[in-house]
From TrEMBL, chains A, B, C, D:
Name of the protein in its database record: Myo-inositol-1-phosphate synthase
Domain Myo-inositol-1-phosphate synthase GAPDH-like residue range list: 224-329
Ranges that cross the membrane: 6-28
Listed InterPro entries: Myo-inos-1-P_Synthase, Myo-inos-1-P_Synthase_GAPDH, NAD(P)-bd_dom_sf
Tree of life domain: Bacteria
Source species: Micromonospora nigra
Amino acid sequence: MTEQRIGVAVVGLGGAVATTAVAGVELLRLGMRDLSGLPLADRRDLVPYEALVFGGWDLAPDDLAKAAHLHRVVEPAQLDTVAGPLQAIKPWPAVADPAWCRNAAGANVVPVGPLRDRVAHLREDLRRFRTGQQLERVVVVNLASTEARPDPATPVLAGLAAFETGLDRDDPAITPGLLYAYAALREGCPYVNFTPSLGADVPALRELAERDRVPVAGKDGKTGQTLVKTVLAPAFRSRALAVEGWYSTNILGNRDGQILDDPSSLASKLDTKGSVLDEILGYPVDDHVVRIDYYRPRGDAKEAWDNIDLIGFLGQRMQMKVDFLCRDSILAAPLVLELVRLVAEAARRGEGGPQEQLGYFFKAPMTRDGGPAQHALHAQEQALLRWLDAA
Amino acid sequence: MTEQRIGVAVVGLGGAVATTAVAGVELLRLGMRDLSGLPLADRRDLVPYEALVFGGWDLAPDDLAKAAHLHRVVEPAQLDTVAGPLQAIKPWPAVADPAWCRNAAGANVVPVGPLRDRVAHLREDLRRFRTGQQLERVVVVNLASTEARPDPATPVLAGLAAFETGLDRDDPAITPGLLYAYAALREGCPYVNFTPSLGADVPALRELAERDRVPVAGKDGKTGQTLVKTVLAPAFRSRALAVEGWYSTNILGNRDGQILDDPSSLASKLDTKGSVLDEILGYPVDDHVVRIDYYRPRGDAKEAWDNIDLIGFLGQRMQMKVDFLCRDSILAAPLVLELVRLVAEAARRGEGGPQEQLGYFFKAPMTRDGGPAQHALHAQEQALLRWLDAA
Amino acid sequence: MTEQRIGVAVVGLGGAVATTAVAGVELLRLGMRDLSGLPLADRRDLVPYEALVFGGWDLAPDDLAKAAHLHRVVEPAQLDTVAGPLQAIKPWPAVADPAWCRNAAGANVVPVGPLRDRVAHLREDLRRFRTGQQLERVVVVNLASTEARPDPATPVLAGLAAFETGLDRDDPAITPGLLYAYAALREGCPYVNFTPSLGADVPALRELAERDRVPVAGKDGKTGQTLVKTVLAPAFRSRALAVEGWYSTNILGNRDGQILDDPSSLASKLDTKGSVLDEILGYPVDDHVVRIDYYRPRGDAKEAWDNIDLIGFLGQRMQMKVDFLCRDSILAAPLVLELVRLVAEAARRGEGGPQEQLGYFFKAPMTRDGGPAQHALHAQEQALLRWLDAA
Amino acid sequence: MTEQRIGVAVVGLGGAVATTAVAGVELLRLGMRDLSGLPLADRRDLVPYEALVFGGWDLAPDDLAKAAHLHRVVEPAQLDTVAGPLQAIKPWPAVADPAWCRNAAGANVVPVGPLRDRVAHLREDLRRFRTGQQLERVVVVNLASTEARPDPATPVLAGLAAFETGLDRDDPAITPGLLYAYAALREGCPYVNFTPSLGADVPALRELAERDRVPVAGKDGKTGQTLVKTVLAPAFRSRALAVEGWYSTNILGNRDGQILDDPSSLASKLDTKGSVLDEILGYPVDDHVVRIDYYRPRGDAKEAWDNIDLIGFLGQRMQMKVDFLCRDSILAAPLVLELVRLVAEAARRGEGGPQEQLGYFFKAPMTRDGGPAQHALHAQEQALLRWLDAA
């Protein structure tokens, strides 16, 4: 397996999560011994982290050393060590549309043109990446800022044929995020969506992934507050402590937070957060409130405060408060690396379509039949390990 | 199954947990519909809660209506409803020894005598309970205040023969708690130890339980902070977030807290709390600090505050704080009811000795071979459900 | 002073704060010894609490025993003790206008008519109260749900003459809250506004209060989070700890919270909360975020969570978190009682217009010249005590 | 005032607080503009920070650059900037006695000898410092690890004559900390005790300070939890919210914390923390619990968690939780700098003996008559500012 080279084409390559992931791989190449945060570090049956080769698109033209420096996530001393390889990576011009992501802007863009031209451009990027870097396989990962969500009932998303006709007609419901996913699938590249945007999670693209047997996984990485929720809620259910209400607030100050200051992007995000609780508990929690607030002093260091109201024996009330002072990109980046290794493995096994066993990584996991997902973390972990061991 | 009557002989019948459990069963008899806090409420294969008939020992002579009133756990309006049946239950005189539990005192005691006389007295109590109340089976539950712990290397505890010789010789290492457990086993009564005291968890009594095929379960109910710990720690392990330190403090103001103000009782308690973390994580957490402080304003409403220091990807530090404002007896009482139903079921199946599948309920679960226990709550739950379904 | 009877005419008499205040006075009449929460309990120079006689308006027709029962603030046992006197108090029909307070509704309303008729009606209520109950003086207190705020630049509020012309012409900018304040002042009744609504805090009514020498005080009682803010912020300023950001969230589930679910009422509330911090610190805190969320499980038991980001020596960052689990009406009601005693004292001294020395009680204190107010709690307390001692 | 040079002779010069203070002054010399944390930065009537020249004793021989590096308090980039001047400062050998401070150890010690010899040695150090550096005045500041506390009723501490006889006889009750204070006073050096050790706060040394008109100030810097307590408690008193209980726990992982792991040092510390609350509130809080725990992951970044139980109107209970994630040395160092400036000012004014107006800086402020101190922060601040303005 030593000679393998797996390409990772990232949508949003200059962002905090992507630059952290790339810096991490470079530090591992240099012998970093601390494997904290990498859940599958001991799985020798997956491609090694060092096999990953990064490229991708971003609205900002900065090379990754400069981008990582601005995000202030990776420690300066660590960044210095890997400055060389990071400087060598420069994002490709991105396909953007301010109608779908208002607070995101940048100079490094593909000049606007018909949708079909944009798709062709993206596919060409992927082919050039594969051949230029002599890659065995390319995985596409969406780490871009959250898009607004098109009406899911739009006919153009309902099936592959309608979608392709929509491309021909420049249908306004087709967002840039859908274009990237479509281009990836048409190139046979496994596709991972770590954001709350739709990505490949529309009937049209699921149909394509199934047809061409390309693995897809998503959506919205489960890193902070939702991670905690899917750990605690199963315990409350187990002990029959009724959840009367759950109030969650998040404060974060990175670019992600700024994007979510736009209500339409926020709506996408809250949507993926919402149903988790009811599905785990088996009853609706009427008083489930989720807030996300942009608050600059936190920077990338997100804080999630939860208050949970519980009802126990004889109807008596109890409360739990959880304050998670976490680092958004530090939690997300290693999961992205594992997802790349895992969809590469799925592709190797020839398993296409939604990868249900990867629900462990997501707030809103895709299921094979589009039905409700398992959300309890421990059950997701068991499903993942069963799949790995079934190889 | 409607005609079945199961006796529950409680050591510490007048305490907060026991009176809450008894009041709860009486409220269920009267048709209370709220089953919150009862994990196995929907298991029809276990004896119904209404089949339970309570008796037991206490140092205080108060009837259970008066005792429950003093504990201020059950709501006054609920207590009024069940005042009649609670008044009818008066604790039997207890076997006590101030050498082993300094802060506990009371007037309702069996006059001191040789150990063999005490055992005979306790066995007679159990026989009278069974025949007097026409009970199919009697389960003994230890809910008494935490005892000091005898040196576990004392030869008298190392085997059944040595223990019985010790009884003959009035060996000072044989605590009252051990006497109750021995009496229960000799009467063939399944024995549950919900406290941090040794109970049946010494080689001598394990040997007896195995020999006579009597189910035993323990020890120390997992209700508050340790419950949270065994829910969160598996998630940190799963996500490879290294636990650098875990600081836990508890404040509580009920009789339990007062008992733990005595350092020798506290030592027993901390002992059962300590190893959980390392065993779940698979590595030692050097900076694991657990504090328990008696603080009257809390009353029975315990508060557990945890601070957890985590190390994630690239060695970066994160923190989580958990504040659990809980009700000690409200969490404990329903678990006691489930344990009674479960050891009765084990007895029905003829399964004696340590009931490893009941580890779900305990901070320091007994294992069949005395080896390390599974502590992760979800894994414990699965083991329990497998056992139930294997009937 | 024993024979004195002071009337308290409350706008919103059936609300949680008002019923708590009335129940408290009745309990004091019956000899309750606990004076917790009453800051001026030892001031013999003010009218005694027992001298207060309550009446007032409410949209709901329930007598105060029934209303208090519904709010679940006062303990049932205490309510039983004072059920008689509370049943005897029934709110007068209220003047309402759904245009200004959408979420408030009720059947006990004065049929809509010209503004001049409404004012006459309210004045007649106050006269009937005074003579019917043989009161020496009547104080009007606004405890009604928060109104939307009319454009403060509306000419009709800019001066008394314009306001009275507006009354003649049924100007739509004149809210019910302004009518109550105007009626009170015209009757010579000292007026206290404990809500974020405008009350008497418009130039027109300040002019009237000054002209007729009627004391007015407001606005928005300082009870929970803002109280904490005006205690901590002066300490940070004192120690030169720079406040980089302050994130405040409130969850509450009483009628007040429901009203604030309407964005126009919420805007009034946030407005009175906003400027406190900058004025205490002497510099603008750009990242000052205040959230209020309706969350039913809390009921009247509000919870305020604050996160404060501080910068200390050498630019190093620190954080403080404060979680205040408080009881809204329990904090507010005693302050209302003190305010009534204090404006009665001001009236006795012949001191009319805005009572600046009462800023201690308010989030947005009125000042004599309309300029910035002192917000630091300890400085406000000193000003109040100086005024009291200057008698 | 530009030519003034004030010497600061620190007991414990290599510690975290001292090295932070020295680094801070050097950064100010280099033009650092951020004056956060320095309460009196705008007082031009005090000596400028840049006039301070540092020397002092430490058990460890490391120069201050190395010592500061080990403490990890000052940012590496800042330390690099001032590495030169810090390297130039090397601690003088210290007078130590393991009997009084068990967990402190080091190689840089004055060989043990009679107490009189030790005093002579320390006085010689101070004289050499003054003349060698051409200092106008030398201030001695105690920042050493907390000592155990001798029996305060020991006759040798009761008066100056007894103390000096005790020196002659090598009385074992005379701790190293008392020797430093005595030596300072005999050299006419104003003395500041920022630690919980006795310092100059015994009758013998107060007598000396009064006699020779040397300013003394102490004891135990008020930086974290006690600071918060003396800010919140006055507000609770002001609002008549009765404090039913106050539970405080501290976790810290620096050398200070390690020292406090020794119970005799801890006792000194808890003693200075204890009485604050009762004196502010005016009644005893029976359930006031203070914990300090050594917890390595915190390092110098102390965390103080407080739970406060309050009783409000009608006897209803409320709670407040405060979690202060602070930096011990970052809070302490600037206060030390202000204290040096202030005792230098007192010396300039010829005001000797205990400096009561400096209570603002201390947990256990010395008063002129030894009576109870003012603890409320805002009142202390006002007293300090009055003194300053009285110049």
